[in-house]
Specification:
The chain is of the alpha/beta class. The chain contains 14 helices and 13 strands. Strands 2-1-3-4-5-12 form a 6-stranded parallel beta sheet, with helices on both faces. A 5-stranded mixed beta sheet has the order 7-8-6-9-10, with helices on both faces. A two-stranded antiparallel sheet has the order 11-13.
């Protein structure tokens, strides 16, 4: 049998080609019995359905939403926060009748995803405003929502209140009597180890906001922290920077961390150096990932609602898509989602005397 078309099915059933088309794309136009008869004939003939590209061209939409990532998929899928967000976005899009298309950054081949992939709109996830991929999306004038990144003029955004969460975690340590406080936060790929406070520039919008929040509380209390940076990958980088902090002559009695993953490396380094948590050292993470309660002791951390963030991002993007379709003004809302400090066993009162650590 040759290629099966709508006309092939129409001839089999004895109806018009438009009736067959309606059975797939406008089922409300047919009776249940007639539609069932058309679909049964299509199945018997091995028809796979209307060509997606042709349908998209006809209706002026692809039914797909892109998500631009800052890292490769391998990197993204190695991060609990990113994978939870991606999965939740996909679920919420499916509920809206939309599919998710993941877009790798960059591209050295003829196809550049941000430039060439067909989509109705896009979520830009943790990408710097200077990104060439973001520039391509803006040139395409695609409906866009940014998530966890520096706001772009005229573009709707969803962020968690990183600054408030960081401020609360630093304030918690101050209330416990800590004054020698270290910070382990995210740096660029070439940034690792203890840095001069005046020159520190964390990677990404979340890193910058969390540093501002920690500084809000510490500056007010007259406390100057010791800051160490580490790139997100490999995990060993955070461990090495944590050891540098904990082997200082005047080592911190507490460490504020960019994430629960960074905090886990501080706990690992503390254990290797013979420090007890929290009697010798208090540690605070960020995210409240499953790792936080798997660690020993369980981790004090800042909880963000990742599923709520995904829902907010999808809801906002669907509003932008509808406004574009209706020709009305597109929302450029900046949503700031609340966070919560969750106190567990990794924080306690500052030690009265400095604990000694093992030699390197």
């Amino acid at each position: 049998m040759g290629r099966v078309t709508l006309q092939t099915i129409a001839d089999r059933v004895g109806v018009s080609r438009m009736t067959v088309s309606n059975a797939f794309s406008r089922p409300d136009q047919l009776s249940d019995d007639l539609r069932a008869k058309v679909l049964a004939a299509a199945d018997d003939l091995g028809y796979v359905g209307p060509d997606p590209a042709a349908r998209a061209l006809a209706r002026g939409s692809t039914g797909a939403v892109g998500m631009l990532l800052t890292d490769s998929l391998t990197e993204a899928f190695g991060d609990w926060v990113a994978t939870t967000f991606l999965a939740s976005v996909a679920d919420h899009l499916a509920g809206a009748g939309l599919a998710l298309t993941l877009l790798n950054p960059g591209g050295t081949h003829e196809i550049v995803p941000a430039r060439d992939v067909a989509m109705d709109g896009v979520l830009v996830y943790v990408c710097g405003p200077e990104s060439q991929d973001v520039a391509w999306l803006k040139r395409r004038r695609l409906p866009m929502v940014g998530v966890d990144q520096t706001p772009i003029d005229g573009v709707a955004h969803v962020n968690v209140d990183d600054r408030a969460g960081a401020r609360a975690s630093a304030q918690h340590l101050l209330e416990l009597g800590h004054r020698r406080i270290g910070i382990l936060t995210i740096g660029f790929d070439d940034q690792q180890g203890i840095v001069d406070n005046a020159a520190v520039k964390p990677y990404g919008f979340a890193g910058q906001q969390r540093l501002l929040g920690w500084s809000d509380a510490l500056d007010e209390a007259g406390v100057t922290p010791t800051i160490a940076l580490a790139p997100f990958r490999p995990a060993q980088a955070a461990y090495d920077s944590a050891r540098q902090l904990l082997q200082l002559t005047e080592r911190p009695t507490a460490v504020l961390c960019f994430s629960d993953v960074y905090a886990s490396q501080v706990l690992r380094a503390a254990g290797d150096l013979g420090l007890q948590v929290p009697s010798d050292l208090s540690v605070i993470g960020f995210d409240d990932s499953p790792l936080a309660i798997q660690l020993q002791p369980q981790l004090t951390t800042v909880r963000q609602d990742i599923q709520g963030k995904a829902h907010a991002a999808v809801s906002l993007l669907t509003k932008v898509l509808k406004a574009r379709q209706d020709g009305t003004e597109e929302p450029a809302d900046h949503l700031l989602l609340p966070v919560e400090l969750v106190v567990r066993a990794s924080t306690g009162p500052a030690a009265k005397s400095k604990a000694r650590v093992k030699a390197s």
